[in-house]
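[Structure tokenization] protein backbone as discrete codes
[Encoding] learned vocabulary of local backbone shapes
[Protein] chain in single-letter code, fold in tokens
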Amino acid sequence: MGEMIELPAAHGGVPAWLATTTRPRPGIVVLSEWWGRNDHIRDVCDRFGDGGLVAIAPDIHRVRTTDGPDEAGRLMLGPEVPRAVADCRAAADFLLGHESVRGDKVGIVGFGMGGELALVAASQHAAIAACVDFYGVIPWEGMAPDYAAMPPVLGIFGAEDESIERDRVTAFEADLVARGVDCTVEIFEGCGHAFFDDTRATYDEDAAADAWDMVLDFFDTHLR
């Protein structure tokens, strides 16, 4: 099980959930959907810990969570993107200095809004060597990723995601390829948005298990 810590950052202390391993392993930053760092995200961090990765989930909303879409929309727009990216950088730097973390590179994974933020943050910190994006394609206006500095990307999407249609996903992949980004995009047939989240009605156990294996293999390839 992980633990709550306070992550030092340029804009003040950031609450974060940290899951460590019994011996030094690579580290990853975990970013939540627009609901905030909830029980599901803490569980994901703990699973990464069990899977041999040190995981930290900074609370870019600064403690607040919600299960209502209207409030979630306000939370999504609330964090200033530069500050949120700075929080991601602080989380990556914290991992690199932690006794449980091995190596000089870390990974980052985000879900929904967090996936979009992961793309931006990964392109702005040379220490982030791998980025996993679950169902997020549109960076914030005025804060597009630096594609020339983008590390390898694994994108994971549901074919039946009503919030991100398939043509937007294929356009996203084509754009990354055209810009020279090393990317793999997996679209899971029959799955909707947030199919990885076992607290949501759209959860798909088989697809989530396959996606999890892909993520662990991806990080093993790029962070070992």
About this structure: Confidence is low (pLDDT under 50) at residues 68-78.
